[in-house]
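Morning. Coffee machine broken again, so started the prediction first thing and wrote up yesterday's gels while waiting. Chain of 370 residues, entered below exactly as on the submission form.
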Amino acid sequence: MSSDIQSLRETGGQVPQSQIVDVPQIPSLSSDDSMSSPAPQPTPAPAMPDAQVTDAVMPAASAPSPAMDVPSMSGGLGAPVVAGGTRSKTKTILIIIGVVVLALALGFGAYYLVTSLVGSSSTPSPVATSSNNVLPTPTSSAPTQKPTVIAPMVHVSLLLTPTQTQMIALPSGGGPTSIRSVIVAAGAPAGLTVGGVRDIAMVDASSSPVQSSTILPAFFPSFGSSLASVVEPDFTSWFYLDKIGGIKLGFVFKLTPAAQTATTTIAQYIESNPTDMANLFLATTTVPQSPVFKDGLVGGVPVRFLAYNTKAGRVLEYGFMNGADGSVYLVLATSYNQMVDIISRLKTNPLLVPPALVPSAAGSSTSSPH
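Came back before lunch.
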């Protein structure tokens, strides 16, 4: 070293200045980093030959060589991956996968639970529409059927100017015998004079008008139900005080529209059952040995009649009268005088107009008007 300095002085060169190389701080390595490469050492500057010594000043420091790259301090980049770090990442991944699987299981379980609860409910939940957020009213695909309301029957008598009116309450659930006995007991002549008429309104235990389907089978057990099927439910009944034989009972029934041509069948019902027809008399009456109906004419109305007891004035009379609206009425009376009186009264009713239909029955005889 001394010889080099002396040589420079003799040749007029300058004394070299010592340079301090600024080496970056190398982080201390732990025992786990023993496998990393040693820190690079600074390379001493080579001595310059005498021929190249000039007045130029030597550089303050030489740049580090590529071999002196120092690992970055941020995040430990460049540090070797050890086995402990690999195990930590694997465990984290497994935990994440487990959480995801558990969340999916809980989600599917909640979905099926809600679906089963909603499916078991019988009432559908209304769904809000996206347009106005109004809950729609559930509707049924089947058409709504309105209940059939049957209006109670209203009794309308065809007798416009009766002498008296009377209400008869029939026993509830009573048979034909009990019904007839109540009507017979009500047939007292009190308050009536000869030729007088008492209009009868028959009601049941609930004070509702009695229908023809109850009365006809009570008087005519053999064909009453069949006759009731071809007449209207409402009917007119009355007591008449005859000068011969006292109180007489009579009925007027209106035929249904479908049975207006069934007069011949009705005539056969009546004339084929003289025993049933005898129940119309308020007193016990014997049926003739050879019952034969005959033709008659009362007030211009053709009738058919059968005499049971002429001395007591017990003669069964029946005929048909036309209604103003084209309907047909069946008239039943138990004496000739009663038939004359009722036809006269019915002629004053605008619902009925004469002449009537001519009743006919096979095998019957004909006689002059009685």
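The helical segments are 2-11, 83-120, 176-186, 212-219, 224-228, 263-271, 274-277, 336-347. Going to sketch it on the whiteboard this afternoon.
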